[in-house]
Every structure is written in C-alpha cells, then in structure tokens.
Design goal:
There is one protein chain. With 254 residues, this protein is α+β, with helices and mostly antiparallel strands. It has helices spanning 3-17, 24-31, 35-47, 77-88, 92-104, 108-118, 130-142, 209-213, 228-231, and strands at 52-55, 61-64, 144-151, 157-170, 173-180, 185-190, 194-203. A 5-stranded antiparallel sheet has the order 6-5-4-3-7. A two-stranded antiparallel sheet has the order 1-2. The radius of gyration is 21 Å and the shape is globular. Residues 6-59 form the Helix-turn-helix type domain. Residues 223-254 are annotated as: Disordered. Residues 134-196 form the WYL domain.
C-alpha cells in the first residue's frame, strides 16, 4: 500500500469508528504497518487540515470529526448481503476499507441484512503471507515484473522472474497466472506456495490471460459475472503466451 492509499485508509478507519477512539497500535495492526508510520501519517493528516484529533492519557487515542461522510448510496437488503458475502472472501487492508465505505452508507433493512449475514461468516487464517499477496496484487495492477521464490507440488524450490497476466481463483485457492522468464512459458503459481515475492521496476510485457490458460486444466475459466460492468469498460489485450507443462499447473492441487 503506497502512502496516498494508506492516508486514505487511515481516514476511513477513523471515520468508521467515530466517535470512538482508536489507538495508534490498533491502526498499525489494521493497516499492517509500524506504529511509527501511523504516527507520522496522522501528523501529516493534521497538517493537511483533515479534522483528526488525539486524546492523550489512559483510554485515549485518535478520532475524526464524524461529520465526514460519504455520498448517499442506497442498497437493497439482497444487494447488501451479496456485498458482505463477496467481501468476506477478500483479504488485506484494501478490502477492509472498501467494506467500511459500503457499511457506512447502509441503513435500515440493508444494514440489518448485511449484519445478520456477517454474523454467520467465519474464516480460517489465510496461508498466503500478506506481503506476498500485496506484492502480487501490485505487480498485476501495475503490469510490472515480479521476482518470487516458489515451491511446486513436489516440494522443489526455485527463484523466478515472472510477468503477471492475471489472477485465477478455483476451489478457494488463488493462482497467479504469469509468463515465466526463466521457463520462457506461461505458468500458474499457487499463492500459498509462493515463499517470497518482491516487486521490481521492470515493466512487464502484456500477456493475454485467456491465451496463457489455453490448453491448461483452467482453459474454461470465465470472468465473474459480477465484474461485467467493469470488464465492459476494459479492452482486452492480445499476446501469444500459452500455459504449458505440469509445473505450477493451474488446476486445483491436492
């Protein structure tokens, strides 16, 4: 998460809790950064004129003027429940702040329906390191090469530099679909088998996700219908990459 996104996330955390106070330690945990970073960011917000304030002493913390609100959005109970269910499967600080924005504008029946469903959703801890997921998401979003250490299904460890094409989800697992510069072919990497991942400044070539999946066990994968409004606004890219071989196969693994 870059600094601009983090500052916005801080405001969202404080706004969602208002008028309650949040400690620096709590904010640091939620945003997955150090307390020093949070303190520095809160000071920057104050200097920029954002109405955040601190209450010193035991039981103190940081808060924001609850008058800071979002534009009104009306959800039906069914829509609110669907959003709660979808975001429950998402991970990281971005997903949390996204749901805070949605919850902040819900009221009445919609809020009650989402709250009732949320009370019946539980999740096991993710096996994917938060830093790995953040690096993967950043590489996919910015189309930059990614350096990773990966353990395949046989337990063999290798270092790769890959060019991300997209993400695939199957049976509760996430896969990074990418062009592997080491193997010079398309590959699928299970996120929970990526030991380490680091973004680079190297711009990646464009690789079409459908082409990389062609001929693989995930060739019939389709884009989620819920994303159709966004997909319609994005022109598909073209490339000649193809997913080959058994290593890092995109099929769900035992």
């Amino acid at each position: 998460m870059n600094r601009t996104a983090r500052l916005y996330a801080l405001v969202e955390e404080l706004r969602a809790a208002a008028p309650r106070l949040l400690t620096v330690a709590t904010l640091a945990t939620r945003l997955e950064v150090s307390t020093r970073t949070v303190q520095r960011d809160l000071q920057a917000l104050m200097e920029a004129g954002v109405p955040v304030r601190t209450t010193p002493g035991r039981g103190g913390g940081w808060s924001i003027d609850p008058a800071m609100t979002l534009p009104p959005i009306r959800f039906t109970p069914e829509e609110a429940s669907a959003l709660a269910l979808t975001l429950a499967t998402a991970e990281g600080a971005h997903a949390r702040t996204a749901f805070q924005k949605i919850a902040a504008v819900m009221n009445g029946a919609a809020l009650a329906a989402a709250g009732e469903l949320a009370a019946r959703i539980v999740a096991l801890p993710s096996r994917t390191d938060a830093g790995v997921r953040a690096a993967v998401d950043h590489a996919v979003a910015t189309n930059t090469a990614l350096r990773l250490t990966y353990t395949d299904a046989s337990g063999r460890e290798s270092d790769r530099v890959v060019e991300p094409a997209g993400l695939l989800t199957a049976n509760g697992r996430w896969y990074l679909i990418a062009w592997c510069r080491t193997r010079r072919a398309g590959r699928g990497f299970r996120l929970d088998r990526i030991i380490a991942a680091a973004t680079t400044r190297d711009h990646a070539q464009s690789h079409d996700l459908t082409e990389l999946l062609r001929g693989s066990t995930a060739a019939d994968a389709t884009r989620p219908a819920t994303l159709d409004p966004l997909n319609a606004a994005v022109a598909p890219s073209t490339s000649s990459g193809r997913l080959t071989g058994r290593e890092g196969a995109t099929a769900p693994e035992a």
